[in-house]
Structure formats: structure tokens, C-alpha cells
Design brief:
The protein is of the alpha/beta class and 254 residues long. It has helices spanning 3-18, 57-60, 63-68, 70-85, 91-99, 115-119, 174-186, 201-213, 239-251, and strands spanning 21-26, 104-109, 124-126, 129-136, 161-165, 190-194, 217-220, 233-235. It has nine helices and eight strands. Strands 3-2-1-6-7-8 form a six-stranded parallel β-sheet, sandwiched between helices. Keywords: Metal-binding, NAD, Transferase, Zinc.
């Protein structure tokens, strides 16, 4: 880590010493150190390339495609699930959980990989849902995660099962949005955005709101994003390295 980044980590740790409520906004980049490829939306596996079925990944993983060709949608969902099942939370996930011992921490994540939940995050808003749950589109019954059928079908009514995720073209879950608004209304003392290009307004807005209110903001991302020029601190390094350094400095007294 270069001296400038190390100094920023110490300054961020000093802010954490006096902060009470902290928001973490995370994207695919926080899971990169777990071995998951980063990709826009649900991907990384098909970044910029069409699928073997000739569809863009956004088309294959859309609500419209699930309605008419569930076999295609589930073909690629199954590939993503296999990638997620073979990885574990990394140091960045664990560092966020560790901060819950001393801070009121809220995590807003775009990720559907379930790694924040598996690491133990308590106050978690999975805005795009999670692969860790399936249900029947017809009767709503919970479905077996281990069902190898493509597409899987409900044991109760025979309907097509879907994962509890937001597919392309679908609306965000109302309860998750309401929770986000409620948390933002309470305010935060420090806001982190980690591993996301923040292309969605509901991901960028919590950070921009903090900037407008004078709340310190931290971006952790090796690549520059649309928010890089707005945040107070920008760490152009990986999430695990950054969060380990910040928590180490916090433990050492800033």
C-alpha cells in the first residue's frame, strides 16, 4: 500500500472512532477477493460478451425471458449459483461484521451472492435479493435449493421456481426500498461505497446525499467511478486490503 493510501486509512479510522452509524454500500468488487468475477448486474462471467444462446446476459437473465424461456434463464442462473457456492466471505466482509461490535452498521448491497449474510452481517439490505432462497412463481411455496432440474419445478403445484433475486427489467422489492429510505432518514456519520460503479441511482444517491450533508464518504475501488470526484476519500485498492488496513488502524488507535 502506498503512503498516501496508508495515510487515508488512518484518517478514516480516526473518523470511525467518533462515528456511531455507518453505512456500507457494496457491489461485486467486495466479493472479488473471494474469487468471484466482478461484473455488471449479475455477471462477470459474460462481461461484454453474448451468451452461447446468442443473447446478451441481460436478456437471458430478465423477467421476460424467465416467463417465456425459463430453461434459458435457469441455465445461466445455475452457472452463477455454482460460482457463488464455492466461495467464502473474505476479509472485507468480516471487517464490516467486526465493526458491528462497536458501531451501528447498515449494509446496502447489490450482490446476490449471500456473502454478507454468511459473514454474519446483521442489518443487511439485499436490494437485488439473494440466491439463497427460491420460491414457486405460481403458489409462492418455498422451494428446494438443491433441486438440480433446469428449470426447477415446485413439488407442490408443478409451477416454475425462481430465485429470490431481481432479474433485469423487474422492479426492486418494495420492503427493501422502504428499509433503505427509513435508514437514510435516520442519517449516518460515515458512508462507504465499495466495489461498485454505482450506475443505479438508488446506489449512488446514499453517497451523494451524504456529500450534500457534509458527511464523510469513502470510496474503495481499484477503478475510477462516477462518484470518485465527489467522495472525500478514494482508495484505489481492493476491498480486503483497504478494510484490513482501516480496521488495523482503528485497533491501533487511528
Amino acid at each position: 500500500m502506498n503512503p498516501e493510501a496508508a495515510r487515508s486509512c488512518r484518517e478514516i479510522a480516526a473518523l470511525l472512532e467518533t462515528a456511531q452509524r455507518v453505512l456500507f454500500v457494496t457491489g461485486a468488487g467486495i466479493s472479488a477477493d473471494s474469487g468471484l468475477p466482478t461484473y455488471r448486474g449479475v455477471g462477470g462471467l459474460y462481461n461484454g460478451e453474448a451468451t452461447e444462446d446468442g443473447l446478451e446476459i441481460e436478456e437471458a437473465l430478465s423477467g421476460d425471458c424467465l416467463a417465456v424461456r425459463p430453461d434459458i434463464t435457469w441455465k445461466y442462473l445455475a452457472q452463477i449459483e455454482r460460482n457463488c457456492h464455492h466461495v467464502e466471505p473474505n476479509a472485507a466482509h468480516r471487517a464490516i461484521v467486526a465493526l458491528e461490535r462497536t458501531h451501528e452498521v447498515v449494509v446496502l448491497t447489490q450482490n446476490i451472492d449471500g456473502l454478507h449474510a454468511r459473514a454474519g452481517s446483521g442489518d443487511l439490505i439485499e436490494i437485488h435479493g439473494t440466491l439463497a432462497r427460491r420460491y414457486c412463481q405460481e403458489c409462492g411455496a418455498e422451494a428446494d435449493l438443491a433441486d438440480p432440474q433446469v428449470p426447477p419445478h415446485c413439488r407442490r403445484c408443478g409451477g416454475v421456481v425462481r430465485p429470490a433475486v431481481v432479474l433485469f427489467g423487474e422492479q426492486l422489492p418494495g420492503p427493501a426500498i422502504e428499509r433503505l429510505y427509513d435508514e437514510l432518514a435516520k442519517g449516518f456519520d460515515l458512508v462507504f461505497i465499495i466495489g461498485t460503479t454505482a450506475v443505479f441511482p438508488y446506489i449512488a444517491e446514499p453517497v451523494l446525499q451524504a456529500v450534500r450533508r457534509g458527511v464523510p464518504t469513502v470510496e474503495i475501488n481499484p477503478a475510477a467511478t462516477r462518484l470518485s470526484g465527489s467522495v472525500r476519500y478514494r482508495l484505489a485498492i481492493g476491498a480486503a486490503e483497504a478494510m484490513t488496513a482501516i480496521c488495523g488502524a482503528l485497533a491501533a488507535g487511528g
